[in-house]
Task: inverse folding
């Protein structure tokens, strides 16, 4: 949410948008996390997120329509996962260029629907309009138990930093069109170890970790050698490219040890420890094999 | 919702989209009304709708950014009103062409925010992406007491048909950019007389009445002379142009009489009786001053 703002004033734009929120008392968390958090009932919060994908920016013209549909929903489900929640209902807007067949549009829905089934998402409505370039917007609701909500803002110095899978090369390999959002992993985490912070990696490890550091008012050190990378992806690709849609989370160090033991013993999921949270606010360092620290900008890929 | 489908298979496309819904048990009504209806708690339903507006289709390039923001939210609030509900929380996606200033984008939010304040809507999140043409998608939640929900499907033969204001000329006059959604009128109606069906007029009187007729499996006669028209708008404009965002509703005839008396006595709101519901499914007739019936197609303006 507001992950890829224009370079014109970037963070300044997000901050200025915040003033337009008019938040009512039922809003627990508005702009500034992967999804908004709304009061639902005594035990649960409702989560609410939206993502727009545009031809030529988030996918190329020749992309298979099923893949376009898949991605449009998957990146929203990933936002719900990043809060520790499960997705429930979606509405879908499609801007359709002239000359596209009904069959093509149905394939987009088919791709979306196949993924929706896996995660129990109901597609309950939408809008279809004319547009110059294929544009899909999904808005998605989710739910999370109040005790299991995870925000970006809870990382504390000493916490260990993890990711759920290898990073980099997502665009080149086409992985961004077929990734499975990490709902299971997120639910395992919130039901067992409860991360202190979590976010999905859409803008790149450095950028999304940057969002966590800013929200939590802390810094971080990443151990370069520990960052898992996809085949053919260098460290810079893993750090900056984005669209990986793996989860990035932090855990207090005692819990982190237990998680590592648990993973080792039961081979459940894949969690890679890649670094640690430090006190210096929003400072991000890379540690090389020799232990030397190099400060980098907490920024990843932007579409602008 | 799905109001302006492509001509390629139009209704066929909507019908085929329905098969992709995967509706869960918490979905009371999915695709096919102004908003989706979801189970919320013992007394209330949650409403969920979305609308996308695109430069060159729903507004022209030179349109004031505040007006663009106003319209993007207003047409969603209108959908919630058409169900009898009140709007609560919105998420906003904006596709931004290159070269637009942060100031321009902030004015869009300012227009949206001013309207949001009037109706108590919290803007809780969103997405900003690069696009060739300015594109705004709003997804909006609302609430309605279970006993006050109004669908398109409840119109019965003998019911009287009403609209909340004059029709036609909305695009030419710029009214589509500054209209105030009829939430107050809708709430007055559901709290007092409870319409048997309701819809907002976005595709034009003939088109939107057509949606009601299809959903209710009934027909209708419109008295041409009774249809209120905006200054400069002919009958055909009132019938077809759309973007009026007035409410169209039906009331059993006893309630209709009471509503007319009530309006006359207290001068509350403006409700115009324009015709009646008949048995013949999806047949729409215009009655002229001499009582002659002319059958017309239940279709309004489409963007395709």
Result:
């Amino acid at each position: 949410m507001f992950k890829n703002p224009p370079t014109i004033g970037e963070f300044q734009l997000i901050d200025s948008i915040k003033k337009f929120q008019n938040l009512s008392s039922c809003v627990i968390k508005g702009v500034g996390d992967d999804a908004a958090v709304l009061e639902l009932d005594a035990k649960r919060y409702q989560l609410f997120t939206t993502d727009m994908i545009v031809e030529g920016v988030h996918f190329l013209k020749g992309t298979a329509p099923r893949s376009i549909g898949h991605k449009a929903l998957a990146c929203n489900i990933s936002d719900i996962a990043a809060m520790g929640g499960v997705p429930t209902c979606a509405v879908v807007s499609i801007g359709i260029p002239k000359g596209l067949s009904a069959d093509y549009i149905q394939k987009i829905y088919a791709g979306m629907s196949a993924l929706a089934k896996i995660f129990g998402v109901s597609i309950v409505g939408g809008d279809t309009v004319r547009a110059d370039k294929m544009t899909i917007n999904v808005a998605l609701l989710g739910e999370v138990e109040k005790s299991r909500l995870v925000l970006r803002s809870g990382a504390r110095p000493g916490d260990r930093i993890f990711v759920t899978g290898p990073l980099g090369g997502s665009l080149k390999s086409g992985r961004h069109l077929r990734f499975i959002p990490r709902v299971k992993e997120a639910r395992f985490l919130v039901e067992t170890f409860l991360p202190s912070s979590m976010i999905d990696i859409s803008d790149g490890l450095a950028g999304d970790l940057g969002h966590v550091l800013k929200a939590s008012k802390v810094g971080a050190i990443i151990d370069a050698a520990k960052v898992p990378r996809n085949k053919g992806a260098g460290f810079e690709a893993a750090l900056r490219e984005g669209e990986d849609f793996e989860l990035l989370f932090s855990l207090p160090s005692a819990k982190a040890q237990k998680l590592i033991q648990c993973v080792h013993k039961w081979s459940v999921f894949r969690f890679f420890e890649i670094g640690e949270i430090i006190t210096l606010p929003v400072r991000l360092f890379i540690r090389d094999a020799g232990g030397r620290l190099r400060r980098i900008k907490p920024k990843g890929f932007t579409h602008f």
About this structure: Residues 65-82 of chain B form the longest helix (18 residues). Residues 95 and 135 of chain B are 5 Å apart (CA to CA). Chain B has a mean pLDDT of 92. The longest strand of chain B covers residues 44-54.
